[in-house]
User: Fold this.
Amino acid sequence: MSQGLDTRADDGSHTGPRHVAIIMDGNGRWATQRGRPRLFGHHAGAKRVREIVESCPDVGVEYLTIFAFSTENWKRTQVEVAGLMDLFRRYIAKETRALAELGARVRFIGDRESLDAKLVKLMEKLEKATAGNSKVNLTVALNYGARDEVSRATKLLAEDVARGLLDPANVDEETVSRYLDTRVLPDPDLVIRTSGEARISNFLLWQSAYAEYEFIDTLWPDFSREEFASLCASYGERDRRFGGVKK
Ligand code: IPE
Ligand code: IPE
Ligand code: MG
Assistant:
């Protein structure tokens, strides 16, 4: 374990975040600053992922969820969108073995319907290849938007009501959570956004209702395991009250 990165308290109890979600932003600006095309930044950004996943067990993070492509990102130029889809395909094909060896269990959230069939096949293959792992749970949000997720969940829930499988009188927060893409994940404790923007951009709206947030200036391709560890450590100093009063 790297020095100074442990988030365990003196009595051994774990004070760090169990689930960290990251809005990996700033790839385009990172490339532009270097006079390179935006896709150069996306490639550099993709390379950062493995190191952060690798460092999760060191800082006690059991779940890492990363925002890779939003339902709004289709608005970008055809060149950038096609380049990103190509990057996802290559990345998954290339990283499958490394992620499996790291003991990572990979899951994808988001709408798969409008993704290229070949990409979806690779995603499913990666999920299957890592299904037996439990060292760290990596969830990749690809073609994900929280409002889209809630809309899809509502549709499924309404279908179950229509089929008589669900009584509307019994719908509560736990029921809604079960219809979301994140049904098997705990809520994020800490949401980090890189690149200086202080907004959520339609990421995990329901799940992050009580998350702590860190908006940092670092552009995603410059994000390091040290900065990740330091954010996890500062999380341990925060006082989460969940609407109550401090004891
Ligand atoms: C984040 O970087 C990656 C994706 C949204 C796919 P950006 O591409 O948004 O980078 P900036 O915000 O333009 O710098
Ligand atoms: C959010 O970043 C989406 C991802 C990081 C995948 P954007 O760059 O798309 O967000 P906005 O447009 O600045 O809100
Ligand atoms: Mg951006």
